[in-house]
From TrEMBL:
Monomer, homodimer and heterodimer with SUMF2. The keyword Lyase does not apply. One of its GO terms (cellular component) is endoplasmic reticulum lumen. It is found in: Endoplasmic reticulum lumen. The lineage of its organism: Eukaryota, Metazoa, Chordata, Craniata, Vertebrata. It comes from Danio rerio. Pathway: Protein modification; sulfatase oxidation. Its main location: endoplasmic reticulum. This is Formylglycine-generating enzyme.
Length: 370
């Protein structure tokens, strides 16, 4: 039993393209003494974790469970469902039974299995990732300040940084050196202070923490989807398939998602048209009319993270009661089979709720179409 975490790290490193031998005892040792959860720092898809001790004034009073009610009078009212409604269209999913997870996991240590029968009530989910335009509308109305802005930095993929920003970097993430905490990186400045979203208003909002995503969805009178809801939505009505569109990554040679082509992390051929994020809805919708369920930006879900799931049937599962990390789904424009084979509906990963990064966004769900 005591060896299990070491094995996990080995397997993860195997999936990463780090050409190091699997002599990772030291890494495990060091990370354990820090925190049992920090083993995620081995992989580019997870573990972008903030130091806990950073003092940040609680300007948004996020500790209170009424985020949406604290900004201003207009914020309390939320967006109207009128012609000026800037929120995404909701798609009604009928729920019912579906098969969640897989017995043929691409990355077993992520807890992709076992496959289990899950029954969900009907729910609504937004047809695309929340965009910069939508997020700006929210911050304009509420004055909301994201956690990346409050902390003063966020994780950015180095391949997208300007030479100027690169020259100011202090350190990268151990064993995932393509990630750097960049000062001044936030949703308005996805690659740091010298970048802008002006020409990307219809791209997914990035550098949004779980707490930020929750605040947006509350303001929108919606909520984050549970992992089970997200996965049912991803599957698009197909049963036991890897991708939202089937089992073949590129049917008829076509790209169905914004992923990484080429050699990660040094060469992105952008054969799918995008080396970075793409405008939402640039790739075909799945059978439910939902876009970018895999690829483009990772998406937060409501659930706490665990890798242990029973094979029993479940009804409206909501994940563990508590935890340290939240579940994210779908992979991103940075995912390549060689290191982040997570652009599958059953795939999953995690981050602490205050983490943010240049490949992580969200979409909201709802019980009603208000
Ligand atoms: C937010 O406010 C800025 C500054 O007033 C404005 O330029 C921008 O169009 C607003 N964005 C949205 C989505 O309303
Ligand atoms: Ca791409
Ligand atoms: Ca996505």
């Amino acid at each position: 039993m005591a060896m299990a975490p070491v094995l996990n790290i080995c397997v993860v490193l195997f999936f990463s393209i780090l050409a190091v031998s699997c002599d990772v005892g030291d890494i495990v040792q060091e990370q354990r003494s820090e925190s049992p959860e920090s083993q995620g720092t081995d992989c580019g898809c997870q573990g972008l974790k903030r130091e806990v001790s950073v003092g940040v004034s609680d300007v948004n009073t996020l500790d209170h469970h009424d985020d949406a009610n604290i900004y201003s009078k207009t914020a309390n009212e939320g967006p109207d469902k009128t012609e000026s409604d800037v929120r995404s269209k909701l798609v009604l999913l009928q729920g019912g039974w579906f098969l969640m997870g897989t017995d043929d996991p691409g990355i077993p240590q992520d807890g992709e299995g076992p496959q289990r029968k899950v029954k969900l009530d009907a729910f609504y989910i937004e047809e695309h990732e929340v965009t910069n335009q939508q997020f700006q509308h929210f911050t304009n109305q509420t004055g909301y300040i994201t956690e990346a802005e409050r902390f003063g930095d966020s994780f950015v993929f180095e391949g997208l940084l300007s030479e100027e920003v690169k020259s100011t970097l202090s350190h990268a993430v151990a064993a995932a050196p393509w990630w750097s905490p960049v000062k001044g990186a936030d949703w308005r400045h996805p690659e740091g202070p010298d970048s802008t979203i002006h020409n990307r208003m219809n791209h997914p909002a990035l550098h949004v923490s779980w707490d930020d995503a929750r605040a947006y969805c509350q303001w929108a009178k919606r909520r984050l989807p549970t992992e089970a809801e997200w996965e049912l939505a991803c599957r698009g009505g197909l049963q036991d398939r890897m991708y939202p569109w089937g089992n073949k990554l590129m049917p008829r040679g076509q790209h169905y998602a914004n992923l990484w082509q080429g050699d990660f992390p040094n060469h992105n051929t952008a054969e799918d048209g995008y080396a970075n994020t793409s405008p939402v809805m640039s790739f075909p919708a799945n059978g439910f009319g939902l876009y970018d369920m895999v690829g483009n930006a990772w998406e937060w879900t409501a659930d706490w993270w665990t890798v242990h799931h029973s094979a029993e049937d479940k009804f409206n599962p909501k994940g563990p009661e508590s935890g340290t990390d939240r579940v994210k789904k779908g992979g991103s424009y940075m995912c390549h089979k060689s290191y982040c084979y997570r652009y599958r509906c059953a795939a999953r990963s995690q981050n602490t709720p205050d983490s943010s990064a240049s490949n992580l966004g969200f979409r909201c769900a709802s019980d009603v179409d208000p």
